[in-house]
Write a structure and sequence with these properties.
single chain; alpha+beta; 3 domains; five-stranded antiparallel β-sheet; 7% strand
């Protein structure tokens, strides 16, 4: 009956979604929440082979992960169920497609009835050899995914005993780092201290390297999408600016402006996003607590770095080749402010107490882009008010240094009721550029590939 909770009974197992329990012969089998959700999806839709992408969009809908995360989850479920992938009893791999739950005798019973005995609620007692086997896997030279699975298993079995076995060698520092990193993905995971323990510096170095590898593995596609999104927004912003200059009152601009200004906007936005997006992606992967603060700081560092480098290169070229001074044009400070503002808007729109990558969908994704855009628009307007020269204002500055230039802002200023680029023009242009930059960056950052 619709609305009545369902309990699934298959073999010696009982899956109770309403209580989020998996029982084996009356004893609880501990699973992290996403793995429990994966098993529930597979059982609920057991009559079909579910595509990998559809599983990721269902179980990991609020976070971007690699396909390896799904493979690891299936391996963990198979271990929990005692399944053999070579002769699957429960979960079958459908080549080049996905997975299907294949156990033939699944009974759906009323999940609102009490569980049979209190013993069903007890966590099974694990033998010492289980911990020793998982610990040996953790400190081995196995692939990283296997060692992470061992770390997750140790948190489930009791991490205190594993920590007692850790020594001060380099391998054990790496193992402590893995235990520390794995605890963020597990419910009720035990603490894994670093300071006050053997070799804390090496452990921190291993932890940082572990998360950097995850940045490269998991966040790479998000970074590319963020830069592409900003570039597309820059193209749109430049096109609007080109149209305004071309059709503005008494404009000397020719049709060349309609082609070149969009390209200039694309390049400027892509360069800026290459720093800001790197900061935002790094913050979401490397920092597991204080996510909002990390997004602001990393966005500021990324934006400031690329802003300073772009300013130095541009100044060197213009002064060295043309003898023109580029000192007032945007640089490191402007990059810091715009990067921090983008990070602030993104953090406010996608709060995540446990850290990690946010992937809002539909209307929530658009809201995140708009909120980040508004934050960056305000910051850009304040920068122009204080005398900074951003994209279009920098072009206007250069236009007055090169006779015959067609990118002066006078026609646009006349559209806004000013005879020349005054406060209204500067604030309007600054806010528009800041809004479009952050909007494109965040929409690209939160894009989920099909």
């Amino acid at each position: 009956m619709k609305g009545v909770p369902v309990r699934y009974v298959f073999g010696e197992f009982v899956l109770c979604p309403s209580r989020r329990l998996l029982l084996e012969s009356g004893r609880e089998v501990s699973l992290i929440p996403r793995y429990f959700d994966l098993l529930h999806v597979l059982i609920r839709r057991r009559d079909e082979a579910i595509p990998r992408r559809e599983i990721l969009d269902t179980v990991w809908q609020d976070v971007v992960v690699s396909d390896g995360a799904l493979s690891q989850a299936v391996r963990t479920l198979r271990r929990a169920l005692g399944d053999d992938p070579r002769a699957p009893r429960f979960i079958r791999t459908v080549s080049r497609h996905g997975y299907q739950f294949v156990f033939p005798d699944v009974h759906e019973v009323d999940g609102s009835t009490p569980l049979e005995t209190a013993a069903e609620m007890r966590v099974p007692a694990y033998e010492a050899q289980d911990i020793e086997a998982a610990f040996a896997q953790l400190v081995s030279e196995s692939p990283e995914e296997s060692r992470r699975a061992a770390a997750e298993n140790l948190h489930r079995l009791g991490v205190a005993e594993a920590l007692r076995l850790l020594g001060s060698g380099s391998t054990h520092a790496r193992a402590r780092a893995m235990l520390r990193d794995a605890r963020w993905d597990l419910p009720q995971a035990g603490p894994v201290p670093i300071f006050g323990e053997p070799n804390p510096v090496r452990t921190l170095r291993e932890l940082f390297a572990l998360r950097v590898r995850r940045v490269l593995r998991v966040a790479g596609s998000r970074y590319i999408a963020a830069v592409a999104g900003a570039a597309a927004a820059g193209l749109v912003a430049g096109s609007v600016g080109g149209l305004a200059l071309y059709f503005g009152p008494n404009s000397p601009a020719t049709t060349v402006v309609l082609v070149l200004l969009p390209l200039v906007g694309l390049v400027i936005a892509a360069v800026g996003a290459s720093g800001v997006a790197a900061g935002l992606c790094s913050a979401e992967v490397l920092i597991r607590s204080r996510r909002g603060l990390a997004l602001i700081l990393f966005g500021a560092v990324g934006g400031g770095t690329v802003g300073l480098l772009a300013h130095l290169v541009g100044r060197l070229v213009l002064q060295g080749l043309f003898g023109q001074d580029l000192s007032p044009v945007a640089g490191g400070l402007e990059g810091v402010v715009l990067g921090a503002a983008t990070g602030l808007g993104y953090a406010l729109a996608t709060p995540r107490t446990g850290g990690g990558m946010a992937t809002p969908r539909g209307r929530s994704r658009i809201v995140a882009g708009i909120l980040a855009g508004c934050s960056c628009a305000l910051a850009a307007a304040l920068l122009t008010w204080s005398g900074s020269y951003l994209g279009a204002l920098s072009l206007d500055l250069l236009a007055h240094s090169f006779p015959g230039s067609q990118v002066g802002l006078e026609p646009l200023a006349r559209l806004l009721g000013e005879t020349g680029p005054g406060p209204v023009t500067k604030l309007t242009i600054g806010a528009w550029e800041g809004f479009m930059f952050a909007l494109g960056t965040v929409l690209g950052l939160t894009h989920r590939p099909k």
